Amino acid sequence: xxxxxxxxxxxxxxxxxxxxxxxxxxxxxxxxxxxxxxxxxxxxxxxxxxxxxxxxxxxxxxxxxxxxxxxxxxxxxxxxxxxxxxxxxxxxxxxxxxxxxxxxxxxxxxxxxxxxxxxxxxxxxxxxxxxxxxxxxxxxxxxxxxxxxxxxxxxxxxxxxxxxxxxxxxxxxxxxxxxxxxxxxxxxxxxxxxxxxxxxxxxxxxxxxxxxxxxxxxxxxxxxxxxxxxxxxxxxxxxxxxxxxxxxxxxxxxxxxxxxxxxxxxxxxxxxxxxxxxxxxxxxxxxxxxxxxxxxxxxxxxxx
Length: 304
Fold this sequence. Notes:
Blueprint (H helix, E strand, L loop, with lengths): L1 H25 L21 H15 L16 E2 L10 E7 L6 H11 L5 E4 L1 H6 L1 H9 L3 E4 L11 H19 L5 E2 L10 H7 L3 E3 L3 E2 L9 H11 L4 E6 L6 H16 L3 E2 L2 H17 L6 H8 L2
Parallel strand pairs: 1-6, 2-3, 2-8, 2-9, 3-4, 5-6, 7-8
């Protein structure tokens, strides 16, 4: 019996030590690239709920849902701002850029889970490296992950640099979450700095947006963010918001009302792959229907 107790104590100490080590590594502060200096200016929330959330993500990953990441071939290598859908097909895709982050991403995940909504997260490679547990939680919750480069830089890049930015990010996303993504969003929406050319050569769908909250504008408060989204939404819209790149507490505050208002207008929420699949099906039906002639029409033509 004493040996059994000693074995149990050693096992518990080992588990706690490994878990604590995982958290400390996950909370490393990025030191280069896109401006995440805001992280060093604030204390990271380490309350019990946040810690438990991070720890549970590892076990949740084992039971992660199957996420549809494939897109129709027609969209590979294309630049897309929104899905072209019929006016009565009221669906919208919520997208979040620049994460994953240690606080705001987790808060957004909770809101989405509460509303049973799946979204698309365009992740920065260095953030996945520094916050792997949060990236795992995004995948475990059934959301789609897209590539948003390693450093989130805007400058002109040669082919080798653009390839590194995109390939390193694809690699860290796959190694961390098991997700192979074919979605790419260029930082800042810049289309001509070399990144998009390389992404298209690799058959990524270059995902832009048709509607945005403007949550990167410091003067915009939650009511303005809500208004910005609602006034521009229409069937097939792709909505741009952010879960990283700064303090996104205003986005967190605005998101529940954005969801509520869109639901009140009859909108349903889908991921980017689901949205593109809907457009593909509508286009297939539109092209197939006129070709089919009725038996009566055929008979009439035979009697001319």
